[in-house]
Amino acid sequence: MLSISHKRPECIGCMLCAEVAPNYWEMDDEGLAQLHRVVRAHKHFEYGEGFEEDRSVLKEAEDGCPIGIIRIDG
Fold first, then answer.
1. Is the pTM of this model over 0.85?
2. CA atoms within 13 A on the CB side of 50
3. 10, 16, 43, 58: which has the fewest Cβ within 10 Å?
4. Alpha carbon separation from 10 to 30, 39, 51, 53 (Å, rounded)
């Protein structure tokens, strides 16, 4: 499993992560990206898990985030 960290309060609503990895992110009613499944939260970060077979789209979301609030580890 891959670890996903997302600093949601700093999201600017560009929608890139939800467009490239819709199985992991969606846009909420406030226009901010939200992980579908948050496994834990700490301070400003929400954490999720991703499948190895989705590594390329998750890395695309990480690399494409204009403000760098997504990190994929594992």
1. yes
2. 27
3. 43
4. 13, 19, 25, 28
